[in-house]
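Data deposition worksheet. Section B asks for the primary sequence of the deposited chain exactly as it was used as input, without tags or linkers unless they were present during the calculation. Section C holds the resulting structure in token form. Section D is free text for depositor observations; keep each observation to a single sentence. Incomplete worksheets are returned to the depositor.
Section A, Depositor: J.P.
Section B:
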Amino acid sequence: MVKVTMWVPVLAAILLVTVAKIPVAEGVTCTVSELFPCAPAYTSSSPPSRTCCTKLREQTPCFCGYLRNPSLRGYINNPNSRKVSSICKISPPRC
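Section C:
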């Protein structure tokens, strides 16, 4: 089993490379780096933090844009993302 500490730098590097801002509905700026507090929940069995859930709710309109990005798609379409969405009470994106 791969330790979480090994995944955090990898996820951080991916986030930094893909920090493109994707405009969506007025008032929402899609910045994937805002989701960094969710990294442990997406890469391990850790439950999402309150900060993670708050950021996910803020970024919900951005999920379809993130799904179109091949570097991010794997984080949204994985078993841990379903768990995180359920715990944070966020509906999975329907694009």
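Section D:
Residues 7 and 86 are 22 Å apart (CA to CA).
Confidence is low (pLDDT under 50) at residues 12-25.
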